[in-house]
Specification:
- The protein is built from eight helices and eight strands, in the order ββαββααβαβααββαα.
- By secondary structure, it is α/β, with parallel strands linked by helices.
- It has one domain: 3-Layer(aba) Sandwich (Uracil-DNA Glycosylase, subunit E).
- The protein has a six-stranded mixed β-sheet with strand order 3-5-4-6-8-7, with helices on both faces.
- β7 and β8 form a beta hairpin.
- The chain starts with 17 loop residues before the first strand and ends in an 8-residue tail after the last helix.
- The N terminus is likely disordered.
- Bound molecules: uracil.
- Uracil binds next to loops.
Length: about 220
């Protein structure tokens, strides 16, 4: 017992990095895997996004990636094909990582919500609440050196903040032993090409942090 009367004796027995899912189900990063996460998502009906989705877009890429790209949620193409970032925003994302010498096969790409919000609306708080545990689990399994949070929903969810993306982009934060940098979402850059300059500076900093050769320009 501590002096507030709470029994804390169990704390030392909880494995490090324990992720408490529900009272009945406790999963640790050590016993978790990307395959288990995909299985747990199979047929998911945890939130209302299940009603209109065609496919659950779990994520894809290198399971040992040093860099994970976390987006917001699948769009129309992703919903139909079951792969993240394959539309126009995905094209730009590929160009962005290509500029620091990386391809899709080098990174892992996933989203905060795994099902398409109808009409590409923003994901709602209850949907993020229901789904974000899967993103945290993916990151706990992959244990990347760096997470690039694409846009406000990824950044705010992973950092548990309400700060605006324009205030936090380009800075490194700590996320469960990894570094995390928020940056603009590629869909935002398509609508606001003048922000590409800042986004490029963010990517150069990411390349430096990963020990990649930093292209000047
Ligand atoms: N936008 C996202 O945030 N994620 C995708 O997978 C596609 C578009």
């Amino acid at each position: 017992m501590n002096r507030n009367g709470f029994d804390r004796s169990w704390e030392g027995f909880l494995p490090k990095n324990a992720v408490v899912m529900t009272k009945a189900c406790r999963i640790t990063a050590e016993s978790d895997s990307l395959e288990k996460i995909a299985n747990d998502l199979d047929g998911c009906r945890r939130c209302k996004l299940c009603k209109e989705r065609h496919t659950i877009v779990v994520g894809e890429g290198n399971p040992h990636a040093q860099l994970v790209l976390a987006g917001e949620g699948p769009g129309e193409n992703e919903d139909l094909q079951g792969r993240p970032f394959i539309g126009k925003a995905g094209n730009l994302l590929e160009k962005m990582i290509g500029a620091i010498g990386l391809g899709r096969e080098d990174v892992y790409i996933c989203n905060v919500v795994k099902c398409r919000p109808p009409g590409n609306r923003n994901p709602e708080p209850d949907e993020i609440e229901a789904c974000s545990v899967f993103l945290h689990r993916q990151l706990d399994v992959i244990r990347p050196k760096l997470v690039l949070a694409l846009g406000r929903f990824a950044a705010q969810t992973l950092l548990q903040t309400e700060e605006m993306i324009s205030h936090i982009r380009g800075k490194f934060f700590e996320y469960r032993g990894a570094k995390l940098m928020p940056t603009y979402h590629p869909a935002y850059l398509l609508r606001n090409p003048s922000s590409k300059r800042e986004s490029w500076e963010d990517l150069q900093a990411v390349a430096r942090e990963l020990g990649l050769k930093v292209p000047q320009k």
